[in-house]
Specification:
The protein is 54% helix and 13% strand. By secondary structure, it is of the alpha+beta class. The protein folds into 2 domains: 39 residues, no CATH class; 58 residues, no CATH class. Helix 1 packs antiparallel against helix 2 and helix 2 runs antiparallel to helix 3. Bound molecules: zinc ion.
Length: 109
C-alpha cells in the first residue's frame, strides 16, 4: 500500500499516511494541528525510495540493540515483522541469519 506524506501549507505540520486506493479521505486530509486541509507532498515512489534507507537503519539499530542485550529471540521476532513492512535485502538477510541461529541453538538444546 502506498505511503504518502502530507504537509499542512499553513503551519507546516507533516503527517505520514497509508492511503487505501479509492477511499474519499485521500482528498480530505485535515491538519491535526490547525485544521487546515493538507496537501500531498511527494509521490509515493520518491517518498518510498527516500525513506526506506532510513527505516532500514532504524530497524537494524533496534535489532542490534536486542542482540546486545542477548535477546536473540526478540530480535528474530522483531525482524520477522519488520521485513513484511520494509522489504530490503539487508533486513531479509539479517532475519534469515537470526532464524538460522535460533534453530541451531534450539537443536543444541
Ligand atoms: Zn496546520
Amino acid at each position: 500500500m502506498p505511503i504518502y506524506e502530507y504537509i499542512c501549507l499553513k503551519c507546516g505540520y507533516l503527517r505520514e499516511l497509508i492511503i487505501v486506493p479509492g477511499l474519499a479521505y485521500d482528498k480530505n486530509i485535515v491538519c491535526p494541528n490547525c485544521g487546515e486541509r493538507m496537501k500531498k507532498k511527494v509521490s509515493p515512489f520518491a517518498y518510498k525510495a527516500d525513506r526506506t534507507a532510513e527505516r532500514e537503519r532504524n530497524i537494524m539499530k533496534l535489532a542490534t540493540d536486542y542482540l546486545k542485550d542477548g535477546k536473540v529471540k526478540d530480535a528474530a521476532r522483531f525482524l520477522n515483522m519488520a521485513k513484511e513492512y520494509v522489504k530490503t535485502d539487508t533486513i531479509k538477510r539479517a532475519s534469515d541469519a537470526l532464524n538460522t541461529k535460533l534453530s541451531e541453538s534450539q537443536q543444541k538444546g
